[in-house]
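Lab channel / #folding
Pinned by the channel admin:
"Please post every new chain as: sequence first, then the structure tokens as a reply. Keep commentary short and put observations after the output so the thread stays searchable."

First post following the new format, from NK:
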Amino acid sequence: MGWRIGVDIGGTFTDVALVDDQAGRIEVVKVPTTPADFGDGVVTAVRRALDTYKVSPRDVTLLSHATTVVTNALLEETGARTALIATKGFRDVLELRRSARGDLYDLFQDPPAVLVPRHRRLEVNERIDAQGQVVVPLDPAELVGMIARVKALKVDSVAVSLLYSFLNDSHEKLIGERLRGALPGVPVYLSSEVLPEIREFERASTTAVCAYVGPLLKSYLERLQTVLSQLGLPPLLVMGSSGGVFDVAQGLKMPAMAVESGPAAGVIAAGLAGRQLGRPNIISFDMGGTTAKASLIANGEIATTAEYEVGGSGNLNRWLHGTGHPIRVPVIDLAEVSAGGGSIAWIDSAGGLRVGPRSAGAAPGPVCYGRGGTSPTVTDADVVLGYLDRTALLGGALPIDAKAAAAAIGKQIGEPLGQTAIEAAAGIIAVVNNGMAEALRIVSVERGHDPREFSLVAFGGAGPVHAARLAEELDIPEVVIPPIPGGFSALGLIATDLRRDYVRTLYTGLAEADLGRLTGVFSRMESDARLMLAEAKVPEDRRELTRSADVRYSRQAYELTVPMAAGPITRASLDALAQTFHDRHRQTYGHDSPGEAVHLVNVRLTATGRLDRVNIAQASKGGGDATKGRRDVWFSETGMQPCPIMARERLAVGGELVGPVIVEAADSTIVVPPGWRARVDAGGFIVLARR
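Reply from TO:
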């Protein structure tokens, strides 16, 4: 028994959550994010956490981290100098892409930047057909000239993606063997190792993404691991986009797994809160400094999807829009909008009020932080309206300049619109709330779920400020604010499990599927998974293998991933898989076709190593008077009026607060509007419900 530590990098703050397994104690530390070198902020935050709470590094049993290195490298186009080797005639697959476009009516739309320019895309004369048979053998002598060309390009990494290598990887393996021998120190990513799955563009894109970000991720994690090891801390684990952690070695084999690791951690923590509260149906809402993320958990199950684009609008819904770089790895199904505390408000050319996507970030930050920011943000509007303390945040550690915030909003937003600073601030909040409500609508209504049957779990530094108003938009009956909401995503890093996902293409109709072949494919994946769990030193009684399959109707082009039962594969189990698919299709699209043939495309396996469960409940220490004072707060129902301010740590269990009221803690502020009431339960959760 000891301490577990989770570190999450946000757009404005880097959060550290600490859990004492023995005492059940939870603490959080927040420091400003350091965009110039994220590792500096991580190390500073960890050192401060150890010093503040007198934790010896020898007592730390788990250290997990959510990194933004992969996503930032793709968005900012700062990845490694990469070469791509493809089958002759297919060097341009990354540029040809799919026919999908972000906006069908935008004739001047630019496609995403190609990660590997054409002069670094090489071809080899080989061909494997759709049955996995060699049509044109690979000439080893040709590889000598190809390797010389790669050396001359002086690349940092190489991606290899040959046609139909997911059926027969012999040519890719030979190329990989020769490249690794000739270019020691240069990572080589083979599509048959990264993603042995059908669809050449998505497979090539995922492999290219891994090669593009791999050297940066390797440098970042190894430097960070070295510094943390010098502090005496245990080996670093990294959060994956599918909701599980993996060690550094696994992450460097498949860097694309680290995309969206921060948002995934928040959803994991929200799911844990739902289990502890006995609420299997919840909507996770995470509003930080840069973005707001929403995800849905139905019947305790976190939904994942492989339809994801980095840097595009594909993260706004289930389908790809052709505006980013596709990666075919499981990602927690979430909607993300550019609406955070640091999102900048501005007036467009038509005179309309807009919020985001630009953010003030950590440097310079909102105007009210007094760090050189000049553009009004959502946080500035929250200060002007009184939702946030007008003197200081973070328990007094962050001074606030309310007058500067009001002046910036009045001059840049209010004057062009002919409004006062208060009216302009209210408009900013209305616009940003509308955008965040759309994210909640995407993961609920557009996924076939009724939001009235769910609870909204709100966290992040700004989530509890806006949650009640968003619940009103979708008629969600209650809002749950967990303990330490400001560091809740970091808490998710130490409340998850070790996880790795495997996939193989097995293209066949379910009715005529070869049971022996299907059993053999799963057996090989399960053997690889058991080896991975053994190398990670996961005890046998904590290892879990879960099957699923990508299935579609025979005349469809895309699949749905549905769970598949464990045990022997029989005709009865495949019939059950087909019925599960019919049910999922009906829920997703509103209809199904029970009489139509069902087609199997990919089989998947998730290997999980269960870690000790974390109890995130924090018994309230309330007692005495929790009132801190009163301040003027604006609500649409009442206008500006005096409102009681309560200290969260002094709230009594079972006590009820009737809105309007503001509840403050060091890491976040909860706004209880008119028409709402709030109650503190024994675990320290605050539940808001309509009066």
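NK: Residues 336 and 609 are 29 Å apart (CA to CA).
TO: also worth noting, The radius of gyration is 26 Å.
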